[in-house]
């Protein structure tokens, strides 16, 4: 039996994926959306969201995801509560194979697999995530007004977010495993100048401590002297890098050196007919609002692409897109 060819398959259920679903669903394209295991992605781990327009009162990350889901289902998005195992974008229609081994085909694909904050992988980290452990100062900084927090990491993110946290926290301790920062000189200088920030050098967090409800401290270890001590804190902000969830995309789409999908300003990837939106293609902004915007753009571009296929063969449409991508310098080999 011939496999049905879908109009559009969306991979990922964060703000970008659901938004792409809402738009393509509303355009009667009957999208198929793979949610992955964590519906909602990173936002589902966020305690409260208060900078997403339209919600003057804070909304929990979980509730926002629930609303995205309901709204997408209202427009006929078909959700598959599964992960994608393999994609084949080298031939058209594109192939997507689920972890259960089922093959799906589509004329267009929107990739919205997001990124994950790198974890410390120490005891207490998972238990207290959202209860004192955070990976997003913009999201959670406000909840630490007049409190003591530690920031783990020595890169640009740790400095930038540490500086941001001084707007709220009484004191910010940056814990770094070496005695030199990786961050740019400009950010280092701003952090050194800030009198709310202190540094704890050559030190790692071995454990995050709590009272069962929330974080109360950390166990620190000096990697040079071996000295171990308990350090009281209300919050632990971890900024040791992000990792794009692009394992299934390697060899399929052009990625940058860190593994993020390269897109042009229309969210087009190096393969005509495959679009990417949200953090998988955006290491810079990482906000619900920007992911929603990119999901909208990807959906509208997918619609336009599918409309062109009504009059022309895929190869013809693809050739035109490739020429534009080439002119933009995006068509590097994956
Ligand atoms: P990053 O540059 O990779 O820095 C990660 C930091 O975490 C490093 O200091 C690293 O220590 C530390 N680290 C890694 N694994 C660790 C572990 N298991 N335990 C303890 N510490 C650990 O990541 P990032 O700061 O998120 O930045 C990512 C990229 O975005 C960079 O290219 C950065 O320049 C860019 N960015 C730019 C800006 C800006 O320009 N305003 C802002 C944010 C990010 P070591 O130093 O010892 O390796």
Oligomer: single chain
Question: Could you estimate the helical fraction of the residues in percent?
Answer: 25-40%
Taking the sheet with the most strands, its summary is:
7 strands, mixed
The CATH superfamily of the largest domain is FAD/NAD(P)-binding domain
Using the alpha-carbon principal axes, give the shape.
elongated
Assess the beta-strand content as a share of residues: 25-35%
Q: Which cofactors or ions or other ligands sit in this model?
A: NADP nicotinamide-adenine-dinucleotide phosphate
Average of the residue pLDDT scores: 95
CATH class bucket of the largest domain: Alpha Beta
**Helices and strands, in N-to-C order?**
EHEEEHEEEEEEHEHEHEEEEEEEHH
- Sheet/helix structural class: alpha/beta
The CATH topology label of the largest domain is: FAD/NAD(P)-binding domain
Task: Please compute the radius of gyration using only Cα atoms.
Answer: 22 Å
Q: Supply the number of helical segments.
A: 7
Tally of individual domains: 2
Label the CATH architecture of the largest domain. 3-Layer(bba) Sandwich
* Alpha carbon gap, first and last residue: 33 Å
List low-confidence stretches: none
Number of strands: 19
């Amino acid at each position: 039996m011939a496999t049905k060819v879908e109009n559009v398959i969306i991979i990922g259920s964060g703000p970008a994926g659901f938004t792409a679903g809402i738009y393509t669903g509303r355009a009667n394209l009957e999208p198929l959306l793979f949610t992955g295991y964590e519906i909602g992605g990173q936002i589902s781990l966020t305690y409260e969201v208060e900078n997403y327009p339209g919600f003057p009162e804070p909304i929990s990350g979980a509730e926002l995801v629930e609303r995205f889901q309901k709204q997408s289902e209202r427009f006929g998005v078909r959700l598959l509560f599964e992960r994608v195992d393999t994609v084949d974008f080298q031939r058209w229609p594109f192939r997507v194979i689920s972890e259960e081994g089922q093959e799906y085909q589509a004329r267009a694909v929107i990739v919205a697999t997001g990124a994950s904050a790198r974890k410390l992988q120490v005891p207490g980290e998972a238990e207290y995530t959202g209860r004192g452990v955070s990976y997003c100062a913009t999201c959670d900084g406000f909840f630490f007004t007049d409190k003591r927090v530690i920031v783990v990491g020595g890169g640009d993110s740790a400095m930038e977010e540490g500086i941001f946290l001084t707007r709220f926290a009484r004191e910010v301790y940056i814990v770094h495993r070496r005695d030199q920062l990786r961050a740019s000189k400009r950010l280092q200088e701003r952090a050194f100048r800030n009198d709310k920030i202190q540094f704890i050098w050559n030190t790692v967090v071995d454990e995050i401590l709590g009272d069962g409800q929330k974080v109360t401290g950390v166990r620190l270890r000096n990697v040079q002297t071996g000295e171990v001590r308990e350090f009281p804190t209300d919050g632990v902000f971890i900024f040791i890098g992000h990792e794009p969830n692009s394992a299934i995309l390697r060899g399929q789409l052009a990625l940058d050196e860190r593994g993020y999908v390269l897109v042009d300003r229309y969210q087009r990837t190096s393969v005509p007919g495959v679009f990417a939106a949200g953090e998988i293609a955006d290491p810079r902004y990482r906000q619900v609002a920007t992911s929603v915007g990119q999901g909208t753009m990807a959906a509208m571009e997918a619609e336009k692409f599918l409309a062109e296929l009504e009059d022309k063969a895929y190869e013809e449409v693809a050739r035109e897109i490739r020429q534009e991508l080439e002119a933009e310098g995006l068509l590097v080999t994956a």
